[in-house]
Amino acid sequence: MSSVAIKVEGLVKVYGAIQAVDNISFEINEGEIFALLGPNGAGKTTTLEILQSLRKATKGSVCVLGYDVSNNKNVRKLKKEFGVLPQDFNAIDKLTVKENLSVIAKMYDKHVNLDKLIMTLNLEDKSNSKFEDLSGGLKQRLGIAGALVNDPKMVFLDEPTTGLDPITTDRINHLIKNITFNKNQTSIIV
Ligand code: ATP
Fold this sequence. Notes:
6 helices; binds adenosine-5'-triphosphate
């Protein structure tokens, strides 16, 4: 039986007069792909940022991989355990795909084999291409590779297919479904 990777209870986030997240609760199991859906301004990014301990909740409890994210002592440990594709992902224009991944990999104590990761994301033909020369879909694939570089237990992908054509969207969704790091124990939140 799979165990719970994320447990959110009664989460509320208020920015001044704006209620960005209004009392939501959910659970995500290990190895599960969980999609957070809602219209613009529904509070998806805010929720993801709270799960990643980038923002503090106004109310409610959030437990990620067994850690209470409101406790600052847990944040450093937790950040090593997850990978993130931010909504506004960008990389270094003049560096190649592999060089950009090496830069990201240097932020962690351990990382996966970069050539294997490049193959997983079907980027081998573009390994030596500069970031500035990639199409939008290829840039997103590099972003997803960057989110997997530390062999994370939890991956946050904030709108990984926004702005992409239907075929590229389908290809990226397929890649996301096939992420098999940690023997399928990686939880993915999109
Ligand atoms: P989108 O689909 O457009 O990216 P979202 O569901 O991710 O939207 P959020 O970005 O979480 O929504 O925003 C939720 C609400 O909180 C919006 O009304 C937004 O304007 C507001 N908001 C987000 N961040 C802040 C902030 N730092 N300060 C004040 N208000 C904010």
